[in-house]
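Task 17 of the worksheet. Students: predict the tertiary structure of the chain below and write it out as structure tokens. Keep your answer in the requested format; marks are given for formatting as well as content.
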Amino acid sequence: MRIRPEEPEDFAALRELHRRAFAPGEYEADVVEALRAAYAHVPELCLVAISDDDAILGHVMISHGLVDVYFAFALGPIAVDPAHQNQGIGSALMREVIERASQTEYPLIALLGHPAYYPRFGFRPAEATFGITTTYDAAPEAWLALALPAYEPHIRGAFSFAEAFGD
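Model answer:
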């Protein structure tokens, strides 16, 4: 398996990947396309996991967000083909996207996600740890953030996701 940034020729397959991974809903597939259409994503940090025979196994998307007036990253959606789940593909994508994001000037990555999964990558409750709130109705343990090397403690306040995420 190798990991690389997504390419335009991947887009149809990525929509189908998100549809399969989150069936029967299409919200995640729609968000991926809406983020791209709005240029709210970070192309070099939207990564795909590819098999040796060039099949797309997984995808992670990073988009622009704000903490108060400070630029930040939002992670998600992330999807792994259901036939290849529980094989470390999602973890490999997470490690790689965090490594690449750490080389930027952005201070943090925020997400709404499963509180038993993301802490293994260093994510912590965003409000309790960093003083970063969300407008989404989310359990505190599911609203998570990861400080990147450029993080500074004065970066606090409300996190704003790209409009493509909707309400």
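Marker's comment: The chain has one domain: 2-165. The first helix runs from residue 11 to 21.
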